[in-house]
Amino acid sequence: MAQKGWEIENTIKLVDPTRDALYKYDADKVKKLNNERPWRSDPNHFKHVRISAVALIKMVMHARSGGDLEIMGLMVGYIEHETFIVTDAVRLPVEGTETRVNAQDDANEYMVTFLERSRQAGQMENAVGWYHSHPGYGCWLSGIDVGTQEMQQSINDPFLAVVVDPHRTISAGKVDIGAFRTYPQGYKPEDSGSSAEGMAAVPMAKAADFGAHANRYYSLEVSHYKSTLDSKLLEALWNKYWVQTLSSSPLFTNREYVTKQIEDVLAKTALVHDSMKKTSGLPPMGPRPKTGNDQFAKVVKAAEKIASEEKMGLVAAMVKEKVFAVAAPQLDRAAHAVATDGGDTQMADVKVA
Amino acid sequence: MAGKSASINPLVLTGKAPDTTQHVQLHPLALLTISDYITRHTLRSQEGPIVGAVIGEQDGRSFTLEHAFECKLQELNGDVLVDGSWFAERLEQYRDVHKAPPLDLVAIFALGPVEGPQKVHLPMLKQVQQLTGNDSVMLLLFHGELVDHLQGGKLPISLYESVQEQEGAQVKFRELSFEVETGEAEMIGVDTVAKAGTAATAVQRADTAQTGESSKKATSSKGKGKAKDKDKEDDTETAGILSPEDDELIASLTAKANAIRMLNDRINLIRSYLTTLPPSYLTDANSTTPPPRDTTNHILLRNVNSLLSRVPLLAPQSPIVALSNGHEAASAIPSSAAPAPAPAPSPPSSGIHAAGAKERQDVHLTSLLAVLSRSVAEAQAMGSKFHIVSREKENKSRPAFGGGGRGGGGGGGGGVGGGRSLGGFGEEGLTGEVRGAP
Asked: Where would I find the MPN domain in this sequence (chain A) (predicted)?
């Protein structure tokens, strides 16, 4: 067909087989890897995650659209060596996933038919993980999440869990995302403290949940990729959204979220204070002050995070002021001086904005 | 390749759109989805043309194009059509998960030449319009040939609406203008990918070597500095030379700097255009050359003028002019008061000054909070270390002196000595600061 030929001829130029290699899909290779299952022998087998541009943006937007409610979705892609490659993300019609164990079951039918239709359209990747959001309380796995992921890893391995925090994303201006895999039951990781300390401050309301399960999973390194065509379009798009970069007012948009964060730091400080009071009477023994210090160190980290985000917001506001507002009166006088020189042309009045 | 004349496409209506023009906003995600599909389709050597659907919000005459998905196609009598039942069900699935705000089909996309829609695009557009009962489904064409010659931020796509002048007549297309609009989350996502997204080179055995290598191949020039920062961010917080907060600050400052540079470029562009205009009676009262009617772009000049007239709105208004009627009066006053000094930045009596001052104070307050909590934490750490040290001293001194009383005195005397010795250990450098702490 004439159009087909013409199209294929053109699209070949739009891709680069080396730099867009991840967009290929080798079904046989994937099948072979699935049969070998190297991850069975090594719980820490998978170490990296590469997320495509569309998958990332879809997940972040989905998370944001849920507001304060947790949302959930599916990721499709494939695996290669020790890496998960996430090529696309699919929304699932469920909400409030943190309070129910079987949230995924509701969406089972949707998932199955969706993937089937995708395959019919030519998108052959399998489901390779699930993502959900933690609005405002950071990227980690709750007890329910760990249970869900453990089950998925036993049935549907290789499977990945991804968590997005839309509030922190907006506040920090950077995508807050984490990828995790659980250890099998009874497996004791060597350095049990590392993943727990690496997490950014978790709000007090969730701290118990976080602490209880922090040793049952580990986090993978996340990186993003985009195609050469994406890069070209993004360069063109940058020309359009640089305006947004300059004109955004993060201090204003994030007011509620920051207030909540400050309240949370306050509550944590009070908690630490109380626990200090209890132990201050006894001669301080070695371990006790240490845990107090740890707790307090986390509080300090949280406070500093808030301060730095606020500072960035202030920088944005100051930049706006400096660039636009300070010089505006002079600019205006200059503009008028030119306009009203020729007395007959009353251009100053004819201002049709 | 069918012979196509360079500029005239019989299917495209030329001339201005009527007053009831539509207001169309394109979101970057839709564009990136299309590009992702093109890359995948081509690299996997999939069959069939590249066709898909775009969903968005429709509000009277304004449309948004927000999400996109590819379509399963079928061929019928040589026409390319979408698989009807597949399409209907798939659209329903997308509607299910996009309920607030409710999104629906607004366009279908396909590859197409710059000249506009071709005969091959007609059947599937008609079919989709019939399937959804929506006649205003638009056609979005992606121009592959333009991608390498993008200039001035023009996107290689065009949007067309179908127009049927009379019943049964040939359907024609009119090109629509659109603007790019993003939501906050979308912008941050796009920003992250633009800066930190590396090339999609294949995963190799030595994964760490690969990420180091591919990050150097960052395609956009803005990405080069960012890629290095990103490597540091991947390390744990202790290993990086810059703390994550510093990284974020640097990243946001760089983004602002780029944006300002862009603004500067644009203003220079406007300025150089204006200086190249031939002199006219506006700039020089004695000049007698008549204004060239044909070549002056009046629309452009009007836009520039309106831009200049908006500038005074940015100036923080002094309280006197805030009460005058309308913006014109406010801007007229500075010109008449030109000999007088400019309105001095008075004490924050105007609303925006006060709000700005409040915001600044809030931010400084949070910084103070953070610094305070850090100092207290350091003090507490020092305190507990001091206790440990003094206990050690007690244990050591007890066998030597054999008296408990001395231990108490030793504890008190050891307080100051302990503080100094801790400073001598060189542990937390803040011992000087916290000496006054209770």
From this structure: 49-186
Dist CA A165 CA A334 (whole Å): 48
Considering only CB atoms, which chain A residues are within 8 Å of B371?
307
Chain B nearest CA to A173, separation (Å): 6
Q: Is B14 on the interface with A (CB under 8 A)?
A: no
User: Does residue A67 surpass a pLDDT of 70?
Assistant: yes
The 10s digit of each residue's pLDDT in B30-52 is: 999 999 999 888 888 887 888 89
Q: In one letter, which amino acid is A33?
A: L
Task: Assess B409–A contact: CB distance below 8 Å, yes or no.
Answer: no
What does the pLDDT read at residue A340? 55
Residues of B with Cβ-Cβ distance to A166 under 8 angstroms: 185
Closest CA to A12 of B43, B53, B8: B43
Q: How high does pLDDT run on average in chain B?
A: 70
Alpha carbon B115 to chain centroid, angstroms: 31
B430 and chain A: CB distance < 8 Å anywhere? no
Q: Name the one residue in this structure whose structure tokens are 């949707």.
A: A110
d(C-alpha A172, C-alpha B244), whole Å: 11
* Amino acid symbol at A238: W
At residue A21, the 3 state secondary structure works out as helix
* Segment A214-230, tens digit of pLDDT: 888 888 988 888 888 88
Hey, what amino acid is at B16?
A: K
The pTM for the full model equals 0.68
Are A289 and A348 a contacting pair, CB within 8 Å?
no
Q: Is A277 on the interface with B (CB under 8 A)?
A: no
The H-assigned helical ranges of B337-403 are 351-401
HSE-CB for B246 with a 13 A CA cutoff = 7
Q: Which residues of chain B have a CB within 8 Å of the CB of A348?
A: 332, 335
Report how far residue A87's alpha carbon sits from residue A51's, in angstroms, rounded to the nearest whole number.
Answer: 6
Q: Which residues of B touch A333 (CB under 8 A)?
A: 334-335, 338, 342
**CA distance to partner chain A, nearest, from residue B69 (Å):** 10
The partner residue sitting opposite B93, judged by closest CB among A110, A229, A300, is A110
pLDDT at B80: 81
- Kindly report, residue by residue over A107-130, the tens digit of the pLDDT: 888 888 899 889 888 888 889 999
Quote ipTM for the complex.
Answer: 0.74
Q: Do A352 and B48 touch (CB under 8 A)?
A: no
Provide DSSP, A226-253: E-HHHHHHHHHHHHHHHHHHHH--HHHH
Contacts of A341 in chain B (CB under 8 A): 285
- The predicted model gives A336-345 an average pLDDT of 53
